[in-house]
Amino acid sequence: MDFAFDAQTHEMCETIKDFARDRLVGPDAFDPDDFRRRWRLAGEQGALGTVVPGAYGGLGQGAVTAAAVMEALGYGCTDTGFVFSLGAHLFACLTPIVDFGTEEQKRQWLPPLCSGERIAAHGITEPEAGSDTLGMRTRAERHNDVYVLNGSKSFTTNAPVADVFVVQAVTRPGGGCFGLTSFIVEADTPGLTVGRCYEKTGLRGSPMADVHFDDCVVPAHRMLGPEGGGFGVFTTSMAWERTCLFALYLGTMRRTLEASIAHANERRQFGTAIGGFQAVSHRIVDMTLRLESARLVLYRAAWGLDRGSTDEVAPALAKLAVSEAAVQVGLDAVRIQGGLGVLHGQSETALRDALPARIFSGTNEIQKNNIARAMGLRGKPARRRK
Ligand SMILES: Cc1cc2nc3c(=O)[nH]c(=O)nc-3n(C[C@H](O)[C@H](O)[C@H](O)COP(=O)(O)OP(=O)(O)OC[C@H]3O[C@@H](n4cnc5c(N)ncnc54)[C@H](O)[C@@H]3O)c2cc1C
């Protein structure tokens, strides 16, 4: 076991951390023009294509390095929503194109998606099918050399600014895992419309909306992977997302922890720094323990991905460990700051940004169901869920 990054990864992360702190900070409210400006900067820096091979405009790095870069972005950039958008683009949209795309699809889509010229969004969740992925209703019906898509996706990150969507649709109703197919759909395709930008509690810098398909005609060559192979595309991209995207929260937790230590050393009550009270110092030790434990679980999962592991348990454990730690670290930070902690822009931000992490990429309850099933805990035959 080697717990240190190699010199190149270390140096890359230091550069990314400074870049994220100095160049990626955005306005308080979501602004599409500023979002795109920063997106291009992130592309120029290589952050949008860490795991994409160099031949297609990426950095050609593995999962451990990609996670380290996300951790550096999460630490450096206080707009966690922006970093989340970047991670959703890279791990839910670009990795499936790398893993399942044809040579033509890779050459067409990956370079502009890595450079920051274009933005991608991933649509699987639907109003009636959240955790129950296989209950989705969006249909893709084949007519000669085109598919016609009808249905709606909800909670689609990046939808309001996306140029291209990776979408899952049903090609064989009742076909279960083999009934889904993935498509690459350009945002300006007739029949595709994007709803209003959601207002969210956390990750406010990440735009999100519903996407509707109304007789949306997609050429068959835009199919990603084989017909009926959508579930495989989805599970592969989720393994990347549950591992590498969640690394951003390691960065946010570290930033929050450092701020909590500074506050505990500066704030004086009863004639002494509050960090001298065991109730406060032990809380900070617990925050450290949560962060470091989650960090080990996540990098262990990334290490597995780099070795071609198809184990679904390690990414699910990483998602669980990091998201639960991030929420608890946020709560602890608010308590350590006292009244200050609930003021806008203080520790409450870390807590608000952490809350959605329990939900996206499949809720934590669903992760536990999947892990339990993999451990042989089976009540009754169940359909596989997100
Ligand atoms: C910030 C954010 C970004 C997102 N981005 C995207 C995106 O880019 N693309 C996309 O497609 N989706 C996205 N989503 C949607 C996300 O994947 C879903 O919200 C999530 O899968 C849960 O679905 P749901 O909201 O319909 O909740 P439901 O499925 O309705 O679940 C509600 C509650 O019931 C519980 N539950 C449901 N079924 C079970 C069960 N079998 N056992 C135990 N508990 C269960 C859940 O754990 C949860 O607590 C995003 C969500 C958020 C919050």
From TrEMBL:
<feature type="domain" description="Acyl-CoA dehydrogenase/oxidase N-terminal">
    <location>
        <begin position="10"/>
        <end position="117"/>
    </location>
</feature>
<feature type="domain" description="Acyl-CoA oxidase/dehydrogenase middle">
    <location>
        <begin position="122"/>
        <end position="216"/>
    </location>
</feature>
<comment type="similarity">
    <text>Belongs to the acyl-CoA dehydrogenase family.</text>
</comment>
<dbReference type="Pfam" id="PF02770">
    <property type="entry name" value="Acyl-CoA_dh_M"/>
</dbReference>
<dbReference type="InterPro" id="IPR009075">
    <property type="entry name" value="AcylCo_DH/oxidase_C"/>
</dbReference>
<dbReference type="InterPro" id="IPR009100">
    <property type="entry name" value="AcylCoA_DH/oxidase_NM_dom_sf"/>
</dbReference>
<dbReference type="Pfam" id="PF02771">
    <property type="entry name" value="Acyl-CoA_dh_N"/>
</dbReference>
<dbReference type="Pfam" id="PF00441">
    <property type="entry name" value="Acyl-CoA_dh_1"/>
</dbReference>
<keyword id="KW-0560">Oxidoreductase</keyword>
<dbReference type="InterPro" id="IPR046373">
    <property type="entry name" value="Acyl-CoA_Oxase/DH_mid-dom_sf"/>
</dbReference>
<keyword id="KW-0274">FAD</keyword>
<keyword id="KW-0285">Flavoprotein</keyword>
<dbReference type="InterPro" id="IPR006089">
    <property type="entry name" value="Acyl-CoA_DH_CS"/>
</dbReference>
<protein>
    <submittedName>
        <fullName>Acyl-CoA dehydrogenase family protein</fullName>
    </submittedName>
</protein>
<dbReference type="InterPro" id="IPR013786">
    <property type="entry name" value="AcylCoA_DH/ox_N"/>
</dbReference>
<dbReference type="InterPro" id="IPR054940">
    <property type="entry name" value="ProlPCPDhRedW"/>
</dbReference>
<feature type="domain" description="Acyl-CoA dehydrogenase/oxidase C-terminal">
    <location>
        <begin position="228"/>
        <end position="375"/>
    </location>
</feature>
<dbReference type="InterPro" id="IPR036250">
    <property type="entry name" value="AcylCo_DH-like_C"/>
</dbReference>
<dbReference type="InterPro" id="IPR006091">
    <property type="entry name" value="Acyl-CoA_Oxase/DH_mid-dom"/>
</dbReference>
<dbReference type="InterPro" id="IPR037069">
    <property type="entry name" value="AcylCoA_DH/ox_N_sf"/>
</dbReference>
